[in-house]
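Deliverable D2.4 — example input (structure tokens):
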């Protein structure tokens, strides 16, 4: 199974079109090597039915993807309208962190702003203001400050017990933990946004 086959390596083959609503999406092929039993009429019928079902699944997947993209673009447009409707920085930041999950599903979004040498956590989704006494938010501010000092975007993800971290095209494998992912992206050289 698998691999690339030249004409001399094919004993028999069936190609069935992937067609749905008169739209040609592709072709499904099965082959058997020389010396193997030839395909029978039942095999052809089965493959054609499989191709019909596959074409429907492919079309539905494409429609779902297009619908998701349209939803993301609508959400981005709504956020953009709301952001540009005000010059109040705090309102802009709250709009970004509280609406980000409409575009990238996440449990938390936060923005750290840098002013000179000061790095301040300015907005966290679900919070009207940043509580400087909350140890979780102080820890978050530390992580974002650390990421800012790195000067690059950062992606961290845990999958099946392995933690993957990407920083500027490098990948590191370390430790294990519960299932989560974290992305830190530079807005500009002095602004950072995070999603968890």
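Example output (designed residues):
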């Amino acid at each position: 199974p698998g691999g690339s086959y030249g004409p001399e390596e094919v004993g028999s083959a069936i190609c069935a079109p992937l067609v749905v609503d008169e739209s040609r999406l592709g072709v499904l092929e099965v082959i058997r090597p020389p010396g193997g039993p030839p395909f029978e009429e039942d095999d052809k019928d089965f493959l054609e039915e499989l191709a019909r079902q596959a074409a429907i699944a492919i079309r539905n997947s494409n429609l779902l993807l297009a619908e998701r993209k349209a939803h993301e673009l609508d959400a981005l447009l709504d956020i953009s309208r709301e952001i540009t409707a005000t010059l109040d920085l705090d309102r802009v930041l709250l709009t970004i962190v509280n609406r980000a999950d409409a575009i990238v599903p996440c449990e938390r979004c936060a923005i750290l702003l840098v002013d000179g040498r000061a790095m301040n956590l300015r907005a966290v989704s679900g919070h009207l203001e940043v509580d400087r006494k909350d140890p979780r938010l102080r820890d978050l501010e530390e992580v974002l400050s650390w990421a800012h000092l790195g000067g690059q975007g950062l992606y961290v993800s845990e999958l099946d017990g392995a933690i993957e971290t990407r920083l500027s095209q490098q990948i590191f494998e370390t430790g294990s933990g519960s299932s989560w992912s974290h992305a830190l992206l530079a807005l500009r050289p002095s602004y950072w946004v995070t999603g968890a």
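The two ends are 40 Å apart (CA to CA).
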